[in-house]
What does this fold into?
Amino acid sequence: MENGISIYLGLDNTIEENLQLIKTAHKYGIKRIFTSLHIPETNVNLLQAQLQIVLKTAVQYGMEVISDVSPNTLSLLNLDKLDIDKLQEMGISTIRLDFGYSEKDIAALSKLIKIQFNASTLTKEFLDELKFYHTDFNCIDALHNFYPREGTGLDETFLLKKNELLHMYGVQTAAFVPSYNKARSPLKKGLPTLEVHRYKPLSMAINHLSLLKVDSVFIGDSLPTKEEMKTLSALTKDYVTIRAKCLTQNQFIKDLLAKNVFTTRQDAAFMAIRTQESRLLCKNEKIYPEYISNRDVGMITMDNINSGRYMGELQIILKEQKQYKAVNIIGKILDSDMILLKYLKPGSKFKIELM
It folds into this structure.
């Protein structure tokens, strides 16, 4: 996945922090930078003083720079009009268009530069018009907005439906997750696309977006940690990572979970998520009784030797069940990550990260 960071010149970070942010992102394989040039609280003098330095560094590290384009932002760039050649010379490789351009204009621009839209506001009618004017959809993508004010973020159902619509036209989608290492001014409440992600761990938010058919994830806030960027760089469409509290002392089981990606069975059970691979992976090991208790929703279990040929059966509990001598409790899905379970369908792939 081509994921990204956000840089806001003349706002929270020093020029040194922004340049280091670019270098760290590059180190972790993060290749996209979103920047907004029309934030009211921005120190315009600082922005103009730092812009060329940041753009030059981004080009040096091979980063895609996405910038909004409007009459106001063009003046900040010392441009009288939209000049694609000069934008590209500066290091801006993608322009974000929110308003002021007709479908015919956009079609012509798509032959010259990559264009990004606000994903949340695109409609079938607009996309059909772009298609009518022979827009190059290979040069179009769509990034959902972030929402600084509490209570204004999007609903996950809306986001999923919008992503499905855009994918019908071959448009790649992206969204933001917050970081609270240095939440962006002025509200400092985080910059998520989905309201449910506000104040939540980045790992849960990025995996949730992946399950909602988002193709690219941006950290919205000003200065994410190295660990957050490392976590983002590991995000993949191949599987979802679900974090859990470790409740086993068995090193074999810990290693089994750390090293393997599991697949949910096609014959989906009512009471639990069952895995295809675990019993085969445990065939040469004996799993002895360990921690046995009532099985609450979100608990991770593994059958022990009292289960006969079912020994090694790995499950995530969906409905409460009584304790049973043949079933060990080996972990518990973190509360923040419970939202991910409803998206694990037959054939879904997932990894359990024990904390």
Notes: The chain has a mean pLDDT of 96. The chain is about 30% helix and 20% strand. The longest helix spans residues 44-60. The domain at 242-354 is CATH 2.40.100.10 (Cyclophilin).
